[in-house]
Amino acid sequence: MTNDTREIHIRALAARDSLDAVTALLHLAYAPLAACGMDFAAATQSAQTTRRCVAAGQCFVAERAGAVVGTVTVSGPYEEAVQVPWLRDADTAHFHQFAVHPDHQGMGIGRRLVEACENWARERRYRRLALDIVEGAEELRALYARLGYREIGREQIAGRQTRSVIMRKSLDRSPLAGHMHMLARYHVWATHCLLDALAALPEADYRRDARLFFGSVHATLGHLLVVERELWWQRFVQGASPHVRLDADIEPARARLAEQLARTAAGWGPWLETVCDGQLEGLLAYRTLRGAEVALPFAAALTHVFNHATHHRGQITAALSAMGHASPELDLVCLLQQEAAAR
Q1: Can you give the pTM of this predicted structure?
Q2: 5-170 in CATH: which number?
Q3: Averaged over 181-208, what is the pLDDT?
Q4: Hey, CA dihedral for 104, 332, 223, 296, is it positive or negative?
């Protein structure tokens, strides 16, 4: 079986689709979580329950070669019986019964199904889209976080054995917000591409002076971590003005440094979900390393963070070529082409 996502079609549930098959798909997808003791209704629900949930909203399915390999249902706010304000807000839609067949996971199907829910909600002028998952389902929570959903609270929902994590995403983005999210996605993608390429780099080449601005590949990566995590993240997220050494070797261990770079890059997207348009269009005030107080355009300063990383990634790829090693293609257009092909 190929992984060509062009073979997969996202569409609304049709009368010809079997709700028994959709229910079986839910059981299969949630079986591993249920085996770990997590209270997911989708792991055991009846076809009648599936029918009732589908009737209350809009069900989308992912079809491949005539078979349903993914599903999700989106609807408006929960009824008053659900005593969770976030899920009853009039401006908030929610999705549930989300599943992808285990043999088809990792192909972007889940992202496309969630995008279909987001488009449905936007068309009906909902400002936010929410979901709830059982506390402890960390892999599932991480997936939603990658899709831009952030945790806003934890609640004990009536009828469930364990607490639920409530996650939400803002849907009313401005073009500027969309652009910043695109840059954040590119930053994550390019960081992973570079780190994957560096994984095979011999230790001697990784540590030696490659005549980069900070000397070695390791020192350059260390500089990136210092600038991003210890300086700009503190300025943007914490509202602080730390004083740091730009050449500090804060993560001497190679594997740990790569892990922290990837983790830091992944944090910008979820954080951007908490930033309103007014903040993006405003100013970022902080104190420079020399003690001067400045106020820069917020979005432009954040663009600098991503551009700074691009600059040093380019230096490292040039060094790889000079050493005779393969260099990854990190052009933004490569990511855009990949995303277009996955739609």
Answers
A1: 0.57
A2: 3.40.630.30
A3: 97
A4: negative
